[in-house]
Amino acid sequence: MAVSRKKPTRRKSTAMDVRTVCAALQKLAPLELAEGWDNVGLLAGDTEAAVKRVMLCIDLMPEVVTEAVAAKVQMVMAYHPPIFKAVSRLVAPAPTPEASVHRCIANGIAVYSMHTALDAAEGGANDVLARLCGLSETGPLEYTETGANQCKIAVFVPPDETERVAEAMFAAGAGRIGDYRKCSFRAPGTGTFFGTESTNPTVGESGRIEHVDEIRLEAVCAADALPAVIDALVEAHSYEEPAYDIYTLGRRPTRGAGRVGRVPRPITVGALSRKLKRSAGAECVSIVGDPQRTIRRVIVAVGAAGSLPFGIQLGPEDVIVTGEIRHHDALAIRRRDCSAIALSHWSSERPVLEPLSARLRALLPGVDVRLSERDAEPFHRG
Known about the structure:
Layout lengths: L15 E2 H11 L12 E4 L5 E2 L1 E5 L4 H9 L4 E4 L18 H10 L3 E4 L1 H6 L4 H8 L5 E3 L2 E4 L3 E8 L4 H10 L13 E10 L14 E14 L3 H11 L7 E6 L2 E4 L3 E10 H12 L5 E3 L5 E11 L13 E7 L2 H9 L3 E4 L2 H5 L3 H11 L4 E4 L11
Parallel strand pairs: 4-5, 4-19, 5-6, 16-17, 17-18
Antiparallel strand pairs: 1-3, 2-6, 7-14, 8-13, 9-11, 9-12, 10-11, 14-16, 15-18
């Protein structure tokens, strides 16, 4: 008896556009986490262009662009921004990062950069390197303020006018906290005033001290909505000169640059260096200090540590794990009687790309997310 079998159906590739991919990348590494001097986000490309293949790399070198063109990718995420400062010319051929961007544009390839936003983000470059060090619990070296600039406005109104004034403020943009609307706080109290002869008070009389029942009405609002909210409350209020207070609110602190944590058990600087060399695939590892020294705390700063670790107290049981260290910073580390391991700039950052690609595939089902095979360490052991 013949049995017919259905052919297995292939999963169709879901076409997405550049804007959708950018949104996914920003979900993994919000741009507001980036350092103020950095240039992150979409650097070149048509936001409405379709994307089926995305390539991840650390540096957008000419050989990486050649690989991207041959692989017919529509978007490249280059960790280091190939456009960093203001560009007055975008020409090719030329031995410049801008020439690589020009070639991407000519081949319909969008270019995006994550850089310090990915360094600071949860699960980003510093967290990945911290895991390679064996750190289970880490905290940031610095915090970054995130979210929009917010204010709080408090106005004093007669009890029977509270709802009218509140609704006017809400309509103008006040009282929004996340997905909640019309958020406010109200407290009763007593207000006093003395109106001069030129006034015409809504309550009481001019020429004498008055005590009136009032409600203190408070609501938050975005800083850019503040002028409209003030206009709305003044218009809705019955007083000639309504009193109100404005408070500037601090933005929410979020994990920023660097990580610091303890190893599960003491380890020597040399042993940790060898472990990282294997796990990160680093060719050019350097050590500052005695390789036989035992350490218990690790300070992680991918790329170039610079002055970042010097904001905390450093001691003999500390080691800084980074990409590269300047000569004078190495001397400063020795003076503080601590140690450091430099994996090379590229090798400290490259490990993040594999977990990043997996997370990106989960957010963009049907999109082919791949790692560049031509992206490479510029230094080699002599």
